[in-house]
Design a protein that fits this description.
Strand order of the largest sheet: 2-1-6-5-4-3
Distance between the termini: 58 Å
Structural class: alpha+beta
Shape: globular
Order of helices and strands: HHEEHEEEEH
CATH class: Alpha Beta
CATH topology: Nuclear Transport Factor 2, Chain: A
Helix content: 25-40%
Number of domains: 1
């Protein structure tokens, strides 16, 4: 009776740690090699940019490279993670510095407030699906201010 409960608890804990590791290593440290380790090759990610769907790990890597060339000094914090088996929801916030071209806007050097949420599915230790929302419009307003 309790073995299933313990297994689910272990899975939940591992999934929550994966999300925290994702934000720490992939974003705060800019380590693109971790993408291969934590993301399934056939991942589908919605909402990285408004109205866009990225299919496949290689497409995500292009997005990651674009964001890391537009912004530096990522300082993102995971606020909350809620897991139910393979489904994980997380909220995050932080700052980045606008040091490269983003959406046609030349670098300003401004520290930008950024926040968002993600809903992901994790199977066998890999992100396989993700829905993302972040304050894209507010980021543009901060850049333009």
């Amino acid at each position: 009776m309790f073995s299933g409960f313990l297994l689910d608890t272990v899975t939940v804990d591992k999934n929550e740690m994966l999300i925290k590791r994702w934000f720490s290593e992939v974003w705060n440290h800019g380590d693109a090699s971790v993408i291969d380790e934590l993301m399934a090759p056939s991942v589908v990610a919605d909402g990285l940019l408004p109205g866009q769907r990225h299919e496949g790990r290689e497409e995500f890597k292009k997005f990651h490279k674009m964001m890391c060339s537009a912004f530096s000094d990522f300082n993102l914090t995971v606020d909350e993670v809620v897991s139910h088996g393979a489904n994980v929801k997380g909220g995050w916030h932080g700052t980045v510095v606008h040091t490269g071209v983003f959406e046609g806007r030349e670098p300003t050097g401004k520290r930008i407030q950024i926040r968002g949420t993600c809903e992901v599915t994790i199977l066998e230790g890999k992100l396989v699906d993700g829905k993302n929302e972040w304050n894209y419009d507010e980021v543009l307003q901060q850049i333009d201010a």
